[in-house]
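Course assignment 3, question 2. Fill in each field.
Student: A.L.
Task: Predict the tertiary structure for the chain below.
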Amino acid sequence: MLDSVERLASSVRNSQMLRLFSVGLLALLLQIPIMMIGALVSERQERRQAAIVEVSSKWGNAQTITGPALVIPYIYRWTEAAAGGQQRRAASSRAGPGSRRARQAHRTAHIGC
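Answer field:
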C-alpha cells in the first residue's frame, strides 16, 4: 500500500500534463485581479472625462479677447494713365462712417515724433 502511494506521488510529480494544467489554472485565476484593475482604470478615465466636460461647460466657453484699437482715417492717392498719354491724379478718402479705415492694435501702434 505504501509502495502504491509513493508510485502515485511520483507519477503526479513527474506528470507534464498535470504541470500544464496547473499553470493554465493559475493563469486563469490571475486574470480576475487583472480584470478588476482594468475596470477600475476605465471607471477613473470616465470620471476624468466627465469632470473635464463639466468644468469646460461652466468655465471654458468660447471667448473673444479684444483690446483697444486705433482707427486712423486716411486718404489714398494714386496716378492713373489717361487716354492720350496723359497722367491723371486721383484720391479717395476713407474717413466716413462705414468706410474702410486703417486699423492697428493698440499694442503695435507707434505714435510719436
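Instructor remarks: The chain has two helices and four strands. Residues 16-59 form the longest helix (44 residues).
Grade: pending
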